[in-house]
Amino acid sequence: MARRGGRRSPQLAPTPGIPATTGGYGRAPMEPDRFLELLERDGTRLAASARRGELDAPVPTCPGWTVGDCVAHTADVYQHKIACMCLQRRPDEYPGEPPDGVAVIDWFDTSLAALLAELRDRGPAAPSYTWWPADQTVGFWYRRMAQETAIHRLDVEDARGEPTPIDAELAIDGIDEVLDAFMSDGWDTVAPEEWGAVDPHAGKGKTIAVRSGGRAWRSTLDADRIALANHDGPAHASVSGDPEAVLLWLWGRRPDSAVELGGEPSALAAFRDRLRIATQ
After folding, report:
1. Number of continuous H segments (helices) and E segments (strands) in the chain
2. Is residue 250 within 8 Å of 279, Cβ to Cβ?
3. What pTM was estimated for this model as a whole?
4. Domain final residue, candidates 108, 131, 164
5. Beta strand 237-240 with 207-212: parallel, antiparallel or unpaired?
6. Strands 226-229 and 215-221, sheet pairing
7. Structural domain range at position 67
């Protein structure tokens, strides 16, 4: 399973017969410039929040991480994606740590500026290595980096006790991203240690509906794939709520009480287990 939120993922190549797209994962409804606008805004807010306290403060949404860890991780992700675009392949080496004498927040600032410049200069239709076979374009990174930054911005703000809203349009797009790009395939590559105590066959054939922002997604569980339908219909269990709450629940950033859960508890438990594996 690709660990797709950050930089760790297996080497993937485009799938024959699947055309590359320019919008990100083939369905992103948002305009590319809107992704860049939100990436810049959320990145700036992440750095500002990090500067308002100690970097060794714990991040409650990421147990074991500090604010400094979250800032460093996000900057590292930016540098990795710049390398993906420049090298046109999965990079083996890239500047994944601050230069000597450079503070981690300052490195984050320069990494964000460099990423934005690279994305703007290339444009969404330009080719790029990505971990998603169906979309080998820079537009993939427009979307993925906007989503990555929104989640980690909120992580830092949660550590400061000052969370601010995620853009509602971006949150709806993020729900689609998790359920499609992160959850739908790649399960045949999950290593035994990643499954851990999770039974791959748990909830087999069960459909979980996610409803938010006037949209619906239905995920049907199987051991090696989770089929996704982008419309409402019958389901064995459901998750619903406002877009931000649902997105953060999918990413494990909010408890069950933040959303409305319905239907079979066992189906929901199996779905939650698969989310943990897909988004780790």
Report:
1. 8, 5
2. yes
3. 0.91
4. 164
5. parallel
6. antiparallel
7. 32-164
